[in-house]
Queue: 2 jobs
Job 1
Amino acid sequence: MRGIAIMAIMLHNYCHWLRGTVRENEYKFYADRAAGMWQALFSPDDLFLANMLSFFGHYGVPVFLFLSGFGLVLKYENPSCPRYSTFGFMRVHYLKLLRMMVPGFVFFIIIDIITPHSFHFYCDKIIEQGLMIINLFPEPNKWIWPGPYWFFGLMLELYLIYRLLLYRRSSWIVAGAIIVCFLAQVFCDPTGDTLNYLRYNAVGGILPFGCGILAARHLCGGGLSSFSRWQWCILTVVSSALVVVMSLYELFWYFTPVVVILATICLVKSLPDLLLHWSVWLGGISAAMFVTHPAMRKIFIPVSHRGDVYDGLMLYVIAAIGVAWVFGIIISKMKSEG
């Protein structure tokens, strides 16, 4: 699932910068973008694949949030696991995120400075990014650069919420948190700054994160292993169609991450062994790919902007995977020495 999710995120973060593609509804819901996606679906052109990746690729994020919640339960709610203090828990996870972020951030800064249209970094924003609190300041989308690094602040918030409110607490509390966060969003202006702010922070991530916690507590060892590969394929098609339809209507849009997670599980179950092994390998370098792919985008997107859309995209994918493989070795060494 990590391998599929990181490829979706990486491809989305390239394609949504291409001229002429349909932009996503990630932090806000724009009806005209949904209409543009309908147009792209029923009147496909040369940018059809790029449109699909641009509009839907960001749904790799809730898959990672689901896996994070799932993993926390398996690791920390096992009766044999020692209890961590809140400070100790947050220290461990902050350092884990920092070790992952620093090599990629340094690499991106170097690439950004030596390529055209470099970003104007401010000292205070760099410190806020390093402390992973930049999401909490007004208009985070204007200051977080590279853009995908908003995920670090989000994860730190979710770790804190898990340790303070959800850790070994009733699953009804998790369900209540999901409902409260849903209501906080649904009563906002769908194109307003308030919704944008909430979805840059933990309120927007609780749904998939909480689903991961509930799944780990109640669905592990479920009786779905008897499904055949063809049955999983059918479920993949049905759930993927639901993702498309639900993404295009505002009220359903809030719940789409749950169906995305289901579709990803079904896809993994239906993959042939060769593709599954490749997906597992990509999942192993997903952390490195996440922190390095923005630099590769900066290098290769001019190829697509001059008209060679898919040539640039292919070069970007090859380079991003190769660089992530190298950085994965670096991050592993930093973990072992930490």
Job 2
Amino acid sequence: MNIYIQKIWKFLTVDMWHYTEGDDLRIPPLLLNVLKAVAITVRGIFNQKLTVRASALTYSTLLAVVPLFAIIFAIARGFGLDDLVEQQITMALGDNTEVVQTVLGFVNSYLEQTRNGIIIGVGIVLLLWTVFNLVNNIEVTFNNIWMVKKDRSPSRMFIDYLALLLVMPLLILFSGGLSVFISTLADQAESYLLLGPLAKFFVKLTPFALTWLMFTGLYIFIPNTKVKFKNALVAGILAGSAYQLFQYLYISGQIWVSRYNAIYGSFAALPLFLLWMQVAWTICLIGVELTYASQNLTKFDFEKETRLVSRRYSDFVSLLILSMVAHRFEEGEAPYTALELSKEGKIPIRLTQQSINELMEMNLLHEKLSEDNESTYLPSVDISKLTVAKVLDARVRRGKENFKVDKEMRFQKQWEALMAAYEEGYENASHVLVKDLYHGQES
């Protein structure tokens, strides 16, 4: 049994990360990808400290919940549909009556003051800033999980966030209208033998489907990177289902709620509301991690080996990539993407991207966006003058050397021995003993 468990553990931690496309797999590729995605997600939950990030978003949401609902209700009242929005928000908050009444009371006061002209100028700016700050915190959290270092520009941030605030009430109205429409059809179809059960099934499925679409939309549009629909959809369905399950447990746990009421009294609604938001954000962020994992499976192949790659092999990969890029450039063909270089050279994608970044730092490659907005790579120097010696010399000189070590006088021997080894080859340095290079401290 111990040997069997060790084999399984070795497969999960080492062997399955060495399988690449075209290899003879022992298990179905789909199952292998699922195992990889789950492993990456679980590791990300701990490494990214998702519970801490969920707590931060819970705090931001608590600050922005009243201004956010105020904007939603202001737009909804313009259409005369504020009752429908109130019904949808009540359902979203898990039928927590005290919280709903408190929040809606604050919202009505907020809007009443605004209508009377008391809150103008600074008040409106503060309202928008609070909501924008929440959306920005969500984007930063998503970008951190996706390891996206470049944020949206201020102009694009303003346009995207404003569009999100305008679209959100419309989506709530649409979901409410859709729920009413399907419920009406279900009532009309009850008299039919076959349509009745089917209609009831769709009524029960509607909240799930709307939640799936909400999570999928968040996973696609919030991160400042290209997210594939299929990966976001799978994560959205799983996260949405988990959210609906939590809602069911939360609503049906009346005994648990009554215990909170006995302890906190009239304040019971606050810790329950905070707990609801904390769990909801945790589920959402796990879905983000799952989306990232499923879309970037190949980036984790040979991950341990990539971190420990030798200097010699790193030089070899750089020469390989440069030769492939230079050859395609000479033939006048479309430039390589990182994924194409990885597949053709059978180089782990993480090592490929690492080598590309180093070559760009050395000004030997530069990036060019394709028509599909993908990063492709071209030579930055004349390929007729790009020799192996020039590449290796650039790799040796890469980085900083302006430190206080005295290589001109005191440690001149060590520096000259190293330069001779680089210029004349290691064989000429084989007779030089390292212990003879140092003569103790200066007198």
